[in-house]
Every structure is written in structure tokens, then in C-alpha cells.
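Lecture notes, unit on protein representations.

Consider one protein chain, 159 amino acids long.
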Amino acid sequence: MKQKKSAQSNTKIAIVFFAFLAFIVGISIIFKLITVVRAGQFDSSKRFTLTITNGKNIEAISLSPDSKEISVFKLNDSVKFAEVGRFLEIPIDGFIVQNSLDLNQKVDSLFVKTILNYNKLKTNLTIIDLLKLTMLARTIPESSVNVKMVGDVNGLELD
């Protein structure tokens, strides 16, 4: 009879232990989510501009949540990735570098690919930022996406 009582006691201890463990894991996940959200660069109340490169081509994508518009600037080889903001004379909020990225696709598809390959990216954006950018890009109609090719310039014109 004492063995049944101790077995019941051990079960209660195990249940309390696992409940405490689940509580601690839950709290740590909540803190991690708060940290990731705070580290985000994207603010849905203002225009957000980011540069994307696949090692060969460079694009600057500017998303405007207020006017529901996307502008894509396809740059040529003469502009270096680090100088895109200076060349276009606009502030760059984020960057994405991935060698296997296809830049000839729709903007929302491009963001989905970056989410799926997030571990292979070199970026200052969080996964939450990319999710928000994807949702914003999906709400903007294709007719509001402006693609502009930026022609040849030499280094003297950048000054």
C-alpha cells in the first residue's frame, strides 16, 4: 500500500516538473519573440527601401504602405552594392544578399523566397520584417509596381 502512495507521489512530482519546464520554455519563447520584433527594421507607417543583390545584379526596392506603391530600381554593374543609397540619393533601410536569388520575379515572390532561404541570407532584417514586407507586397496591385532600369553612369557622376 505504501508503494502505491509513493508511485502516486512520484507521478505528481513528474507532472509538476514538466509543467514548470513547459512554463519556463514558454516564457523564453515569448522573450525571444519580443526581442526579434524589437530588432526589426520595418515600420509600416513610413516608406521602406532595401537593396537586394545576388552577386551579379543589384536592385533597390522601395515600398510605400501609405500610397500602396512599390518602386523597383534595377541597377547596372557600374554601381557598387554599398553605394546604392548614395547613388540614388535615398536612405536605405535594409539589405539582402543571397547568391542564388532570382531578381527577375515579382516582388512578393522574391520576399517569399527570402523567407524560405532565411538561413542562407546575409541581411539586417529579421524574419518578422520579411513576413511584414511579404504581406505588404501581396496587398499592392501589380499595376502599382513601377520597375525602372538605371542606365550607365561613371564614378565621376556619383560625387
